[in-house]
Amino acid sequence: MAVRACGLIIYRRLQSPPPSKVADGIEYLLLQTSYGTHHWTPPKGHVDPGEDDLQTAFRETQEEAGLQASQLTLIEGYKRELHYPAHGKPKTVIYWLAEVKDCNTEIKLSEEHQAFQWLKLEDACKFAEYEDMKQTLKEVHQFLCSKE
Ligand code: AMP
């Protein structure tokens, strides 16, 4: 059976972008792992017994980025599942999408990560080295732009 993990793709909107460039004011949060090849990823982690997937996504975001559920707005209508092999086992990761209410909210890392960045779509796609994650970020951006 696949290892199951859940997380949140977190974004913020920079204050007062020019009205024609609202989408340019969006930045995505990526964390750099302190393990393995130090790849960049949204916050996510394994589902604990008795927990539902969305609870896991919020708990992991709190543990890994220091963001409480009350500091976030879950965006309805977006959910994406990724499948990849991790450490020789199939892994499923389910992501929801959430906006940080205050774009200046402090990020507090756990020991699992060594750095974080808020990145515009193009840079986020460069740091997210895996093709499925790049596609997910592009899809999220389209989704947000279509809601403008
Ligand atoms: P993670 O799931 O981010 O904890 O990473 C576990 C392992 O899977 C690491 O070796 C990563 O480099 C690799 N990995 C992470 N994300 C992806 C992905 N989207 N596609 C393929 N491999 C990945």
Euclidean distance between termini CA atoms: 40 Å
The name of the CATH superfamily reads Nucleoside Triphosphate Pyrophosphohydrolase
Name the bound molecules.
adenosine monophosphate
**Named CATH topology:** Nucleoside Triphosphate Pyrophosphohydrolase
CATH domain class: Alpha Beta
The assigned CATH architecture is Alpha-Beta Complex
Overall 3D shape: globular
InterPro entries: NUDIX_hydrolase-like_dom_sf, NUDIX_hydrolase_CS, NUDIX_hydrolase_dom, Nudix_hydrolase_domain, Tetra_PHTase
Cofactor: a divalent metal cation
Protein name: Bis(5'-nucleosyl)-tetraphosphatase [asymmetrical]
Keywords: Hydrolase, Nucleotide-binding
What can you see in these coordinates?
With 148 residues, the protein is an alpha+beta fold. The chain has a single domain (3-14, 24-147), classed as Nucleoside Triphosphate Pyrophosphohydrolase (Alpha-Beta Complex), CATH 3.90.79. The chain has helices at residues 53-65, 121-127, 131-147, and strands at residues 3-13, 26-33, 40-41, 44-46, 72-86, 89-100, 113-119. The longest helix has 17 residues, at 131-147. 28% of the residues are buried. The protein binds adenosine monophosphate. Adenosine monophosphate binds next to strand 5 and helix 3.
Comma- or semicolon-separated keywords:
148 residues, alpha+beta, 39% strand, globular, binds adenosine monophosphate
Overview in brief:
By secondary structure, the chain is an alpha+beta fold. It has helices spanning 53-65, 121-127, 131-147, and strands at 3-13, 26-33, 40-41, 44-46, 72-86, 89-100, 113-119.
